[in-house]
Amino acid sequence: MTLTTIQLFAVHRGAQLTDAQLQQSLQTLPLEDQQRILRYRRWEDRQSGLLAAKLARKMLSEELSVPASDLQIRRTELGRPYLHGFADWQGDFNVSHSGDWVFGGITTQGVLGVDVEGLREIEMEVSKHCYCPEERDELYSLGGAEQNAFFYVLWTMKEAYIKAIGTGLSTPLTSFGFDIPSLKEGKILLKDDQGVPQPQWHFQRYDVDDAYRFAICSDQENLPGSITLLTRDEVLN
C-alpha cells in the first residue's frame, strides 16, 4: 500500500509588483484565470490571487512531473478547483489566501481543504450564524484578544472542512461543530448536527504568523507537522 504524502506551502504576498511584473506573471496563466484575478479591485487581492493560482500550478506540476502550462484546472459548480484530465491521479489540492499570506496544500490520496485567515475585530453577533451552541458557549466565556483568536481557530477549521468536502458555504457552518472538551485537550474532533463524532476527518492548525490562523482538513491521517515557506520568486518563476 502506498503511503499518502501531504505537503503544505505558504508564501508571503510581499510588496506590490510593478505592472510589468504582474502582466508577465499573468501571461503564464490561462485567460480565465487572468480575467478572474484582474476582477479584483485592490492590488493586494490581485497579487494574492495571482500567487494562489501560481502556487496551485507549482504544487501540481512538481507532484505530477508535468509542465504547469499543460495543467487544466477547472472549477465545480460550487467553485471548488480541481485538476482536469488526470483520471488516474487519486490526489487533491487546495489553496487559500488572506491578507499577507497565500496557503496551499496537496495530497497524493484523498481530499483536503486549507484555510488561512487574518485576525481582525469581529462582531460576536456573527457567531450565531457560524457556530453551534457548544462552540458559542466557549467563545462567549472568553474575552478580548483570546476570544477573537478562538473565533478564527474555529472559523479556519470550518472553512477547511467545507473546502475539503467541496460544498463551500452552501453547507451551513452551524450544521457541524467541534467537540470543545477535546479541543481543550489539544485534540480536534468534528461532530455532525446531531452531535455524532466524525473521526474520519482529520485537522491540524499551524502557527506561522501570530496575526493569522492556518488550518487543514483531510480524510487522510498523516497531516504534516509544519508548513514549508516559499519565497515569492519561487512561486512566480
TrEMBL record:
A biological-process GO annotation: lysine biosynthetic process via aminoadipic acid
Single GO MF annotation: magnesium ion binding
Residues of the 4'-phosphopantetheinyl transferase domain: 112-217
GO cellular component terms given for this protein: cytosol
Keywords: Transferase
Domain of life where this protein originates: Bacteria
Domain 4'-phosphopantetheinyl transferase N-terminal residue range list: 18-103
Keyword Aminoacyl-tRNA synthetase: no
InterPro entries (alphabetical): 4-PPantetheinyl_Trfase_dom (IPR008278), 4-PPantetheinyl_Trfase_dom_sf (IPR037143), AASDHPPT_N (IPR055066), P-Pant_transferase_sf (IPR050559)
UniProt record similarity statement: Belongs to the P-Pant transferase superfamily. Gsp/Sfp/HetI/AcpT family.
Protein name: Uncharacterized protein
